[in-house]
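REQUEST FORM: STRUCTURE PREDICTION
Request ID: SP-0412
Submitted by: Lab K.M.
Chain count: 1
Length (residues): 76
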Amino acid sequence: MAHGKKPTLTRKAFAARAPASPRPTKAKKPKCTPEERFRMIQEAAYLLAEKGGFEGDSIKYWYEAEKEIDAKLAGD
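STATUS: Completed
RESULT:
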């Protein structure tokens, strides 16, 4: 080896020696807990029932609220 010259690495050799660094990812919103989802559905069902004058089937309001909240959570 001549004086003053540093040994060079090929790209392939450098890549083999370099540790793989994780790629930065977008920060994801934390998913809501089952308790938070339940409370969201509970509130939405109440509002639907209130809008309907508290007439009709409460289970129907609950199912409608579930669909509404699950669609919102899936879109986030």
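NOTES: The chain is about 55% helix and 0% strand.
Reviewed by: T.R.
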